[in-house]
Amino acid sequence: MLENNESSNQETPRLVDIKLINDPRGALGVIEGMADVGFNFKRFYFITKLSELSERGGHAHKTLRQCFICLRGGMTITLEARGETFSFRLDSYDKALIVPAGYWRELREFDDESLVAVLASDHYDEGEYIRDRREFELFTRPASPSSVPYLDLNRYIVNMRSELDVAIESSLDSGIFIGGDAIQRFEAEFSHYCSTVAAAGVANGFDALQLPLRAKGIGPGDEVIVPAHTFVATALAVAQVGATPVLVDVEPDTGLMDVASVENLITDRTRAIIPVHLYGCPVDMDPLIEIASRRGLFLLEDAAQAHGALYKGRKCGSLSDAAAFSFYPTKNLGALGDAGAVVSNDSALIGQVRMLGNYGAPRKYQHDQVGMNSRLDPLQARILSKKLKYLNEWNSRRQQYARQYFAGLSNIDGLQLPVTRDWAKPVWHVFSVKVLDSRRDQLQEALSRRAIGTNIHYPIPVHRQRCFADLKWDLDAYPNADRFSQQSLSLPLDALHTPDEIKLVIDTVRDFFNAL
Ligand SMILES: *Cc1c(COP(=O)(O)O)cnc(C)c1O
Q1: CATH 3.90.1150.10 in the chain, residues?
Q2: What is the Cα–Cα distance from 300 to 358, expressed in whole angstroms?
Q3: Any residues with Cβ below 6 Å from ligand 1, and which?
């Protein structure tokens, strides 16, 4: 499985077929850039006048990708990286060999008269050649890390470059920049992923929260119950539609909405409850579902951190009347910009959300409601479709790293690891530990000195945000949320971290506590 330092979807050399169109006039061979080879060619060259004794190659490229086609004769190419060797005999013009960057190559055993064509992803640049074998070993050897970024989104770009290029290119080729099939396709894929009936793409996670509230007619005079420990968007979305957010404290161990306290807060103005699957850990939904159905309340999951998380075997997002997802770039499923979605088993509600997000128009220029502009754009939809295919793999990598942390950081006095219930299968959007005895900032500082990035989710709880000062909340009513804001520290945990990076974090945290 995902044992070594290689990212799971790293490209390896592969052969692709060259389409041959035969007719009485002769044969035409065709190979497409993006579609067949996975990159666009910027340079064409060929080698010929080769003899049986010729040897070429003896180098690698740091970034250049190539496609070899033997048009005449034959040759053997051996490719090697990280202890893996691939050998191909190219001797017909109906196969092309795709060589990703980072492979040492030797070309030999040429037939006389061989003619080998090469398509390259970029122009010539001596600086990206590796001609020295030792330099190559260093380049490809997984270096033991000396720093750990909290999150390095560039790794996703490097990893999926060709697929992202394809997504962007097909968007350009389509000429459609709002609406269209790409959105419908992603909506269908994502609602299927969430085990729901329908999805509506929207502009961001915030809108994914406010649009279902609007669709339900929730507004001024209404109350909506939200947790005091969450990203501010949850409460802001309630305020944005004109309703009043009513805060509930969180459980002292999990930091998730204290479901047992919700019913006490219900008044005759209460219209909805928004549980937040914070950090990618599911809230205990069954009691909430019972309360909501008994009291006739709208139940909306804030699943912005929980793409793929399971509650009692069921997908977060499918557990209530509707769910809001964010595809902000840092989320478990992230776009290359802002994006979001609402999913639901109620397709009429999804239709409402879609209409409200499109200027309240059921059809062009007919506006039935005071809507807004909140649409997912097709470029982001195409990118999200590409990334969705890897989401399960990325989530299981996150789960692997969470296990590594649980094993490596157990039994440290003054450090509390995240608490999860046995019915929960979290997707670890954030791995937030609690540091006791007012040492949180000290630990953060110590990690920072060793070039380890951390974060605090969130340093100011919702009830202490100045934007809500008018609501005159009792600041002492949410002690658990306060404690999380003072004690929690999010350690680096991303699908594209390496086990060695996680180990360095563990060792550095242990050093800190040992030195106390
Ligand atoms: C990210 C996030 C949101 C908001 O999503 P945006 O796409 O940034 O608007 C809402 N709620 C939670 C819990 C989030 O983490």
Answers
A1: 392-514
A2: 21
A3: 204-206, 230-231, 233-234, 276, 302, 304-305, 326, 328, 338, 340
**Per CATH, domain 156-388 is 3.40.640.10:** yes
pLDDT of residue 34: 83
Written as one string, the DSSP assignment of 84-150 is EEEEEEE--TTEEEEE-TT-EEEEE-PPTT-EEEEEESS---GGGEE--HHHHHHHHS-PPPS-B-S
Q: Tell me how far the alpha carbon of residue 506 lies from the centroid of ligand 1, in angstroms.
A: 28
Q: What is the pTM of this model?
A: 0.85
The fold adopted by the segment(s) 14-140 is Jelly Rolls (2.60.120)
E strand segments, 358-499: 415-416, 424-425, 431-435, 488-491
Instruction: With cut-offs at 50, 70 and 90, classify the pLDDT of residue 142.
Output: confident
Atom of ligand 1 nearest to the CA of 207: 9
Nearest CA to ligand 1 atom 14: 304
Could you read off the pLDDT of 104-129 as tens digits, one per residue?
A: 999 999 998 999 999 999 999 999 99
For ligand 1, the distance from its centroid to the CA atom of residue 180, given in whole angstroms, is: 25
Amino acid symbol at 306: A
CA distance 473 to 228: 11
Ligand 1: centre distance to CA 363 (Å):
30
Is 3.30.365.10 the CATH number for 392-514?
A: no
Is 270:198 a contact under the CB 8 Å cutoff?
no
- List pLDDT tens digits, range 263-284: 999 999 999 999 999 999 999 9
